[in-house]
Design a protein that fits this description.
Number of strands: 5
Number of helices: 4
Helix content: 25-40%
Largest sheet: 5 strands, mixed
Radius of gyration: 16 Å
Distance between the termini: 26 Å
Structural class: alpha+beta
Order of helices and strands: HEHEEHHEE
Length: 169
């Protein structure tokens, strides 16, 4: 799977919301090796991160930055791909950050299920990856604020079974 193509396919779905909320998009893609991954699942994770970033900027607009790069997991040394989704939205306080992966926890009131990031964490764990987050709550209308989700996916996940081919020759 080409992560840059997956990012672009998700952005295509969100373009009307980007325009409607006056969110500027910056793509900072590097050439990265293809992943051995379940494309639909990784697309779902990216859609959760991007959708949440846009929601965080719905009042005042802002900037969404998508980055991809090759790298190694500092813990395991595994080669992989880093994907960063950064926004200039309202940000999250420490109490919110500690709960974002809990099922049914949402900051969106009745419009959120509280399942997006919980499912995303499950998918990334299955792929042998990791998610990190930094966030700063915006102070005042024009103060700095925003959230950065950084995702690492190994090129060859050790704990993911290869899809089975059920067709016999």
């Amino acid at each position: 799977s080409d992560v840059n193509e997956l990012l672009d396919s998700v952005i295509a779905l969100y373009e009307p919301r980007l325009r409607g909320y006056s969110v500027a998009l910056e793509r900072r893609y590097r050439h990265v090796a293809p992943l051995h991954a379940y494309e639909g699942e990784i697309r779902q994770v990216l859609a959760n991160f991007i959708g949440n970033a846009i929601d965080a900027m719905h009042r005042d607009g802002g900037r969404l930055v998508l980055r991809s790069s090759s790298g190694r997991d500092p813990r395991t040394g595994a080669e992989g791909v880093y994907v960063t989704v950064a926004d200039t939205g309202c940000g999250m306080d420490a109490a919110t950050r500690t709960r974002i992966y809990e099922p049914f926890f949402s900051t969106k009131g009745t419009t959120g299920t509280g399942l997006g990031l919980w499912v995303s964490q499950t998918i990334i764990d299955k792929h042998g990856g990791r998610i990190s987050i930094r966030s700063q709550v915006r102070q005042g209308a024009n103060g700095p604020g925003g959230t950065v989700f950084r995702l690492f996916l190994p090129l060859q996940p050790a704990n993911m079974a290869a899809p089975q081919n059920t067709l016999e020759p």
